Amino acid sequence: MSPVPSKDPRAMVETAFLASTTAMLFLINYYFPLGPLLRMLFPLPTALAYLRWNGRAAWMAMIVTALLLAILMGPTRSIQYIIPHGLVGVTLGYLWKRDFPWSGSLSIATIIGSLGTAFQFAFLSILLGENLWTYSIVQITGFLNWLMQLFGSLEQPDFAAIQTFAIAAIIFSNFAYQLLVHLVAWIVLDRLGNPIPAPPKWIESLLA
């Protein structure tokens, strides 16, 4: 089979379609939040553009999506899409096209997602004029105090333990999210003719 020309008009049409699909998903989820149901689809159109075409198509899909969101929802939401969902989509497309195992793609996507969460805290703190990280630490401190009292302990958790718990919670939540993204991609993209590497055997056995 001869290689697809780099300027094939189909690439431009599909890239525009995938970008508009991502923007629509982001828009619907903002006004009608359905938890992780739509969020786990955010990176997939960009990753699909990479799998079907190349890195240029994936970057263009991300940029066009960001431009659409900037027009429809403002630059703030556009930036929140790019970091981390757009970057995760491009990265996963790159890794899946090169048959990276799930251990590698999950780890890298989790790192990008966790750094993206840190960026979101800083970005929203600047916009709102409040330190959201401090607010989150206060909430976590109250939760840990309640948890320790539940088990009969009256000790106060130290600041280092609270910070460690907060960071671990961010990493774990991002790992769980990226695992959902991988599972959906494994099921959906295979049916679209662009399969990703197979999951580890233990995951296949759980889903069997």
UniProtKB/TrEMBL annotation:
Regions that span the bilayer: 12-32, 53-73, 79-96, 108-127, 133-152, 164-189
Electron transport as UniProt keyword: no
The record's annotation in Pfam families points to: DUF2232
**What are the record keywords, sorted?**
Membrane, Transmembrane, Transmembrane helix
InterPro entries per record: DUF2232
The UniProt entry, under PANTHER family, shows: MEMBRANE PROTEIN
Specify the protein name.
Answer: DUF2232 domain-containing protein
What species is given as this protein's source? Pseudanabaena yagii GIHE-NHR1
